[in-house]
Amino acid sequence: MARVYNFSAGPAVLPETVLKKAADEMLDYKGCGMSVMEVSHREKVFEGIIAKAEVDLREIMGIPSNYKVLFLQGGASLQFAMVPMNLMVKNKKADYVHTGMWSKKAIAEAKKFGTVNIVASSEKDKFTYIPKLDPATFSKEADYFYIVTNNTICGTTYKNIPETGNIPLIADMSSNILSEPVDVSKFGLIFAGAQKNIGPAGLTIVIIREDLAGKAPATVPTLLDYKTHIEEKSLYNTPPCYSIYIAGLVFEWIKEKGGLKEMQKINQEKAKILYDYLDQSKIFKSPVQKESRSIMNVPFVSGNEELDKKFLEGASQRGLKSLKGHRSVGGMRASIYNAMPADGIKTLVRFMEEFEKQN
Ligand SMILES: *Cc1c(COP(=O)(O)O)cnc(C)c1O
After folding, report:
1. pLDDT of residue 87 exceeding 90
2. If you average pLDDT over residues 30-39, what whole number do you get?
3. Element (H, E) at 97
4. Closest CA to 131 of 155, 112, 157, 111
5. Which of 172, 225, 253, 324 is catalytic?
6. 177, 198, 229, 295: which could join 173 in a potential S-S bond, CB 3.0 to 4.6 Å?
7. Counting atoms of ligand 1 from 1, which one is nearest the CA of 102?
């Protein structure tokens, strides 16, 4: 069967060359006579895999040496709790920007550990933009300041990263990590579930400024303390070995492609094809304000449920898969991560034009 164009928000499309390499190495990884899935995480072979993945990620993102890279489990959702458990420890207060369902969940978790100050929210407008931030509303005593850099469900993204001075900035980058260059030194901690733009589910990447770890109260379970994973180099217990291996192949693929500057250029061009079409379409439109539009997740609506259903069926028949929008937004959503080829988007737009003519 031919491969489809998979617009799923996550788990999501992976580069075909990565999947082929993994297939080639499936039964015998580099002459060790085993699959990576079968190798002990205490073996040299696996130590090499995880070390190389870290070196490549550091190179791609330009991660400064005073930051640690951790390969964890529990998804991005566990970070909603680990962040306050480890960092909401001095004044037990934190600032959050509320931009959608993922910030909502993070806020709910943080409230279990201290006081949450919501500095801005776009909830009243259904999260169709990133709210303007007024530094006068930031808490002086916040232990940290929390944002979701790309809102996977609503399709919004920050065009400027907030300046929070001495207050560590924490970012959920699950759906836009590696899509463009970022200045890691602006952040205290970055986390991302792998299944959007990095690799298979089961792996969560955490990039943490060294000095922020080691302050968790003694009541925090060992596995939920960043310090444990820093000291044990993400090998305190069995890590998600195969997901780390695939993530490593994806990092190599990004390097071959020319790094994050090049990814950004490609991603902007890809997203433009879709937004340009949407902005002139008579039946589909983007619900997101122009200055907040994501280049990774593009929701679009027709405003007519019957038409949406017909569109999704037609798209599926043409191998354009997983375009159904999140239930909270409705309509459609095209997730166009790094691994989505430009041809996938061109094929989608051609079908939208055809559909528009017929309806
Ligand atoms: C998908 C997603 C999550 C949840 O990730 P899990 O790994 O399923 O816990 C959190 N935040 C953002 C921005 C996401 O896109």
Report:
1. yes
2. 97
3. strand 93-98
4. 157
5. 172
6. 177
7. 11
To test the pocket of ligand 1, the residue of 105, 152, 156, 170 to mutate (highest count of ligand atoms within 8 Å of its CB) is 152
Instruction: Give the residues across from 324 on adjacent strands.
Output: 332
Position in ligand 1 atom list of the atom nearest CA 173: 13
| Active-site position among 56, 68, 95, 102 | 102
> Structure tokens of 13?
């499309």
Q: Please, which pLDDT band fits residue 328 given cuts at 50, 70 and 90? A: confident
Q: Give 226 Cα–ligand 1 centroid separation in angstroms.
A: 19
The residue among 213, 51, 53 whose CA lies nearest residue 144 is 213
Give the Cα-Cα-Cα angle 350, 336, 149 (nearest 5 degrees).
140
Q: Which residues line ligand 1 (CB under 6 A)?
A: 10, 75-77, 102, 148, 152, 172, 174-175, 193, 196
User: Do residues 92 and 113 lie in contact, with contact meaning Cβ atoms separated by under 8 Å?
Assistant: yes
- What b-and-e string marks burial along 166-196, b requiring 16 or more CB atoms within 10 Å of the CB? ebbbbbbbbbbbbbbebebeebbbbbbbbbb
Q: Which of 101, 109, 174 to mutate to test the pocket of ligand 1 (most atoms within 8 A of CB)?
A: 174
Domains and CATH numbers, the chain: 17-257 (3.40.640.10), 259-358 (3.90.1150.10)
- β partners of residue 204: 72, 193
CA dihedral for 293, 124, 148, 182, sign (positive or negative): positive
- Average pLDDT of the chain is 97
pLDDT in tens, 218-267: 999 999 999 999 999 999 999 999 999 999 999 999 999 999 999 999 99
Whether 172 is catalytic is: yes
What is the model's pLDDT at position 1? 67
Q: Would you call 95 a catalytic residue per the annotation?
A: no
Q: Residue 134 catalytic? A: no
